[in-house]
Design brief:
- This protein is mainly beta and 493 residues long.
- It contains no helices and 22 strands.
- The strands form 7 sheets. Strands 1, 2, 3 and 22 form a 4-stranded antiparallel β-sheet that branches. A 3-stranded antiparallel β-sheet has the order 4-5-6, with no helix packed on it. Strands 7-8-9 form a 3-stranded antiparallel β-sheet, with no helix packed on it.
- It is globular and about 55 Å long.
- It starts with 64 loop residues before the first strand and ends in a 6-residue tail after the last strand.
- 54% of the residues are buried.
Length: 493
Amino acid sequence: MFHRVGPCLLALTVPTWIGCASPPAPPVERAAQREPAVPAAPAPTPAITVAAPPTIVTPPPRATIVAGSSHTCALVTMPGSAAPRVKCWGTNDFGELGLGDRRARGAKKKQMGAALPALALPDGAPIVALAASNHRTCALRDDGTLNCWGDESDDQKPIVHAEVPAIPVPGRVESLALGVNHTCAVLVGGGVACWGGNHDGQLGYGDQVARPAAANLPPVDLGPGLRARALVIGYAHNCALFAEDATLVKCWGLGDDGELGLDDIASRGDAPGEMGAALPRVELGAGFQVASLSGGSMHTCAVSTDRRLKCWGSNRVGQLGYGHTKSPGTKPRQSRDVAPMGDALPVVDLGSGLEVMAVTAGNSHNCAIVRRADDTRGVKCWGTNGAGALGLGDDRARGDDADEMGDALPFVDLGTDLEPVALALGGGFTCAVVVARGAAEAGGRVKCWGSNDGGELGLGDVHEHGPYQGQMGDALPFVDLGADVRVVVPPRA
């Protein structure tokens, strides 16, 4: 991250320490009629030990499909367009679709397909990634600039109107993440800048002062010599991975439900002295090197480099996937005892012989892309399921009772010979980018299921899809984005 230089030593980007220079030795007295004394040879410099680089030092793939509370956006290729474009559908009360109005799209068939316009964003470098939250969406360009639109609350100042200028930030953005009312960006070089609401210290500046996006935002102090390589956001908490240590995770912001993964349910970052070296690491157990993180509303999940999954934080509907609903919290009758971390935090069991390739955490449900022994991939979802967001043909939650996880947790039926390559989870719905199994991945198509009050599934109606038998698989239509329009497929993990 950003270096903090003390009076005696500096933490570099590898765990190398340079000591302070010793004070000069007192002068040697001259004897009468004698030549000056020959100074003693300097002591040999101790050998410097440099730790091996971490296994994973690059950020996870950039998102090409994202979801807010009840809207969805995808980065797509279109005939006649040289660069990828953005298409959005669902509710639009805050201009989150970026179409210069507040009219929803997706609840009627005539609003989709060729009738659904691509966003008229300003000219500039190609768009390479998207991010979304409740009523807000951002696009990241290849030159590290940002365009954002939607909810203007909490001083984040995204634009609801047709004109969408670049958001001022203190450097070139490598990746970004959006919370309910704040945003954080990882900058090229590993710095982190955050702006927006700050009632729980989620900006990480040691206070509760909201800040607008600006070119002079200070760096978030996450510790001497640390460079962030990825960052995720929940409702009002953040967690970061670092280039220096693949086992290192640090979280700050709201901690009421244990989402920071620490030994208490206090928040961090809302008062002086809580950030930097004082911010504890999240203990995930011996040898658990983190490949990727995902932030749910009040919980966090981590996938290891050897394809295991651990989750922590709120668990009131079984979203952690541990077969119970034990959850810390600050509300009456909730336990203030946090779950054990480190080696005592179990691995989420998604089934025998499966490797977790990626996980996406939603409001209170999660979905994972898993790889079978035959190298085919599927989706498993767990947590709350009131509107069929788990895609299992019912509205029963999974993960809150024993014997619901592991081999007992069904795969989501996406359709014949279709494989998932990306996921997006909204407030009560799920979308997957799918490709034909074994086919060249020139582009993907989208299937969505779950709640649909505002047309967020993009199926031309406002009916729930997923809570009833016979709605999934081949019976679940593709989202019509237009003839030969395909979603950009991120690199496979």
